[in-house]
Amino acid sequence: MHKIVAFFFASLAWSSAAGSLYITVTDAENKALPYTVVELVHPEYPALPLQEHAQVTQQDLLFQPFVSVVPQGSLVEFPNLDKTRHHVYSFSKAKTFELRLYAGKPEAPVLFDQAGIVTLGCNIHDYMLAYIYVAAGRFSAVTNENGVVEFNDLPDTTFSMNLWHPWQKATLASQQVSVLAGKQELNISLDITQQALPKAVKKGFGDY
Where, if anywhere, are coiled coils annotated (predicted)? Predict the structure, then answer.
């Protein structure tokens, strides 16, 4: 269960100008909750594929970033910046793929054409873990280290707001959010306990 407290700052002069949302997400202990995906969904505003390729790198024997969001239909590159080889894979329903042992940059990016959550792993380094949220909505982002995400130039309409976090224990219910001209601030509290991030295991002799 989660609760949303909304604070509305209306423009003094009402107009049809686009609105903005400033969203702060906190955990069960009222601490900032990074890595929360916030997606605004409306049938008139479907996802637009990225014009440039997104990237999830392998660096310092970890995936970076830990959580990323890409619009449905986007291409993602998986460059290996480590000295050792990696074997990237996913068995997720939204995308099943495999990039066998490689160094450097694979020849072709991977197409993420189905909305959903994709869990990434490495067949060589079991502790490597990351997530790609493939968004069906046009407006989506991941909270920063302060638990904050901001959307600007939103159309004045009502969205379904979907939330997702890798440490959630149950599906988070969607909420209706009406965007007005001007700025709105939303404080969202999630019943989530933060966990340790994946950490590289140093084995020595090349850390293979």
Answer: none
